[in-house]
Design a protein that fits this description.
Helix content: 40-55%
Structural class: alpha/beta
Radius of gyration: 28 Å
Strand content: 5-15%
Number of helices: 34
Length: about 800
């Protein structure tokens, strides 16, 4: 069913080959041409791909080694919300009933398979399910509700822990499309995850007759976002392409380059699978022709050339006849993927796995040694601090060899899962040793906010046992100041820079902004955060108009609006002094202002980071001072870990303390790590990779000490830190997780941090794992009304469930709120 397109001339293919042979790099246009290589041209392409693969193996210290993972396949459920035309894995509830299969495998059934696999020496438990079946099938939703699970992904998380503890198998999770928060939730229970990109051919999803038509989770844009979210979450991730489902060569090339681009940004793609379409009975594509062998081999070789020598290229060994596997090795693969001695390939049940001895012999015939790896590939196993959550590190360590591959004879046995991070790192360090850091900690235990600059600088550089002692002290001070609850506010972001932009390009009108306020309230929000510089062509009253539109629709919603740069812009537009303009904002309906844009309150640093575009630090301070004096409280922030020094960090904290002493206007302090990916190229050329965990822990702890008695709340910026690192700072001085950042369905991209939202259940799990409870708050850290609390709990549903309600139900909820 490959989309027919004119074959390129042989001369074009030869020219592309010549370019690749010279520099071993390929453009997207040349990759498109090379998919058509056949005969002598294919042999030349295979020579290039073989050479690149061998270079990569040599540089990794695995010369001549082809890897695989010994696994069991656990098909947790065969239900799915998608309707892919080639899939035989998915069933309907009626078909499951006819076959005597359950809606979901029970925990006992899952353990039975996992235990049998462990007895055979398997080390991977591959969890595969259909995408979010509860969104399509009421019986799936009923089963989850009856068993106490919020979603299929919630159930998979619980089963992954069960398998780790009872059998020792390492879960590799393939639950389909995952949100950022779901990736964060699953990372502590699995060393690796995966989701096939399959194709970037949007027409196959959007046009009737396409193989993905009617499949909500097969939107290529959605799947590409999952790849990037996995990278941001530091998840070793498996992805790949499915060839022969109607895509053309240009789309094949585009898909591979998208995978490479995501890996270039994050370094997280552990393997790229190149999978060939095989027709299956009882599917809409049962009469289509399988992808031809030479076409497939050429595609594998192109994938190697595109992804480069250091990538892992995988081809499933059961989807190619045994006598043809040597061609795939010539094409540049270095991994056969998961192979099971126990369970079938439930996605391709008509194609049995090769016996491992047979696969080893075929690999040996081609001049290679077959070696077992773990679910996470060696480069990730060897860098556990960055890639493997500490709660599953003991499970991975128990099965890994010094090379990062599997220790083939290691016993596969269950071990306790680290349900809670170690919060008992109390000050076991003797403080009488006389080191400068110990002296500073001892002084801080008596007067945390009254240390000298020298003492605070020592603490910002603390590491090891001294850092543990510092964070433990900060945690004690936090507990005394604000208690043990982790607080949060239910909010939504609106990017006001979209106001007046063409709706076709994502722009917002006053009417749309009002609708977003309605939807936020319908979802349980108590706060709407509005930030972004309005276009110059808009009226001078633009900022005020936005607030008035929100206030007219939702008078009870707290409006947290406008950074110092936008406040200054609005004042200039109307020709008003800063103080008068802030009073106008307050009269229009602004309740508080975000103190973002502070970066580091040092003009030299600001000049470097913005190439002179940032206003001076004095302007930020003046704006915050004026806002506080106008009766508008604000947050305070710092972006750290780029080019600033500890001395400049300390000066920033001192400036915030002085300003708060004058106005009492700050509600919280939010330290935000510099994220290289989010910075412009001009900054990344200058700044480092960002702060490490040591610097993050030390800064949050020092902030708690220095601001003690002034700014009570220190927030963990979870969108920047991720949930695991947020837990670390919550045990070292921080007390708040900020807002849920609801996306909604009307215009999910209308917020600055779209597609990264949490539920109350996410927060409860995050807090409970460090032995804490959660408490909903208002923007100013008060208590919501009983009605708001009750409504938030009703509105708190898994994002995929809540955000994919039928439009009639969404409209009904909005009408109820409007009335």
């Amino acid at each position: 069913m490959t989309d027919a397109s004119p074959a390129p001339a042989i001369s074009e293919i030869q020219d592309a080959l010549g370019r690749v042979e010279r520099d071993a790099r390929v453009s997207q246009a040349d990759a498109e041409l090379l998919f058509s290589a056949r005969g002598d041209e294919l042999d030349r392409l295979l020579a290039v791909s073989t050479r690149l693969r061998d270079e990569g193996l040599d540089s990794s210290g695995r010369r001549g080694i082809i890897t695989y993972s010994k696994k069991v396949f656990i098909p947790v459920t065969h239900l799915c919300q998608d309707r892919c035309h080639y899939c035989i894995f998915v069933e309907t509830p009626n078909k499951l009933a006819t076959k005597g299969k359950p809606i979901y495998m029970s925990p006992d059934e899952i353990l039975e398979v996992a235990r049998a696999g462990a007895a055979l020496g398997c080390k991977e438990a591959l969890f595969t399910v259909g995408d979010r079946p509860e969104n399509r099938w009421p019986v799936a939703r009923e089963w989850l509700d009856a068993h106490g699970y919020a979603s299929t992904i919630d159930y998979i998380r619980a089963m992954a822990i069960l398998v780790l503890e009872e059998t020792g198998l390492l879960p590799h999770l393939n639950p389909g499309v995952m949100s950022w928060s779901e990736l964060q939730a699953l990372r502590p229970v699995a060393p690796s995850m995966g989701m096939m990109l399959e194709t970037t051919a949007t027409r196959l999803w959007s046009e009737k007759g396409g193989v993905h038509y009617g499949s909500p989770d097969k939107d290529p844009a959605l799947r590409l976002r999952v790849l990037d979210d996995a990278g941001r979450s530091k998840v070793p991730f498996t992805t790949g392409v499915l060839l022969g489902i109607g895509e053309n060569n240009a789309e094949r090339a585009e898909a591979l380059f998208e995978i490479r681009a995501s890996h270039d940004r994050h370094g997280h793609i552990q393997e790229t699978i190149v999978q060939n379409f095989r027709a299956k009975p009882r599917t809409a594509m049962q009469n289509e022709v399988d992808l031809a062998l030479q076409e497939y081999v050429a595609a594998v070789a192109v994938a190697r050339v595109v992804m480069g020598p250091d990538a892992t290229i995988q081809a499933p060994p059961n989807l190619t006849d045994a006598h043809e596997l040597g061609l795939l090795l010539r094409a540049g693969i270095d991994d056969w993927g998961g192979v099971s001695p126990l369970t079938a390939d439930h996605v391709n049940p008509e194609r049995p796995w090769p016996e491992l001895d047979t696969l080893a012999a075929l690999t040996s015939d081609a001049g290679f040694e077959l070696r077992e790896r773990l679910t996470a590939h060696p480069q990730f196993v060897l860098e556990p601090e960055e890639w493997i959550d500490e709660r599953i590190r003991p499970h991975v360590d128990a099965l890994s060899a010094p090379s990062g591959l599997a220790e083939e004879d290691a016993p596969v046995i269950g071990r306790p899962w680290g349900r809670a991070l170690d919060t008992s790192k109390a000050r076991s360090l003797s403080l009488s040793k006389g080191t400068p850091a110990n002296a500073a900690i001892l002084a801080a235990s008596n007067a945390p906010a009254a240390l000298s600059d020298a003492h605070y600088l020592e603490l910002l550089g603390a590491s090891g046992a001294e850092l543990d002692a510092l964070t433990s002290l900060a945690d004690d001070i936090r507990r005394d100041a604000v208690g043990d609850d982790v607080t949060f506010v239910i909010n939504r972001n609106i990017d006001s820079s979209l106001y007046g932009v063409d709706p076709e390009r994502g722009g917002l009108s006053v009417e749309t902004i009002g609708e977003l306020a309605d939807e936020a309230t319908a979802l349980g929000a108590t706060e709407l955060c509005v930030q972004g510089s309005v276009a110059a062509h808009m009226p001078a009253t633009a900022y005020l108009d936005i607030v008035r539109a929100i206030r007219a629709r939702q008078p009870g919603l707290h409006v947290h609006a406008y950074r110092p740069t936008e406040i200054a812009d609005g004042a200039r537009r109307l020709g008003l002094p800063l103080g008068e303009y802030l009073l106008a904002l307050r009269e229009a309906g602004v309740d508080s202002v975000p103190g973002t844009g502070a970066r580091i309150l040092d003009d030299d640093v600001r000049r470097v980071l913005s190439e002179g575009g940032d206003p001076p630090a004095s302007e930020w301070i003046a704006s915050m001072t004026a806002a506080h004096r106008a009766g508008l409280r604000s947050t305070s922030t710092m972006i750290y870990g780029h080019v600033e020094t500890p001395i400049q960090q300390l000066a920033h904290l001192r400036a915030l303390a002085r300003l708060h002493d004058e106005t009492g206007g700050f509600t919280e302090f939010i330290p935000m790590p510099y994220v290289r990916l989010d910075a412009p190229a001009s900054v990344t050329r200058i700044a480092g990779p960002g702060p490490d965990a040591r610097q993050t822990r030390a800064l949050h702890a020092v902030a708690r000490l220095l601001l003690h008695g002034r700014i009570d709340h220190v927030q963990a910026a979870w969108t920047k830190l991720g949930l695991a690192e947020s837990q670390a700072v919550l045990t070292g001085g921080a007390d708040d997780l900020g807002g849920l950042l609801l996306d909604g369905t009307a215009k999910p991209e209308a917020g600055a941090e779209a597609h990264r939202s949490l539920t109350i259940a996410d927060l409860e799990r995050t807090a409970s794992e460090i032995g804490r409870g959660v408490r909903q708050r208002t923007t100013s850290y008060g208590s919501p009304t009983a009605e708001q609390l009750a409504f938030a709990r009703r509105a708190d549903a898994p994002p995929a469930t809540r955000l994919q309600l039928p439009i009639s139900e969404r409209r009904g909820a909005l009408l109820a709120v409007r009335s």
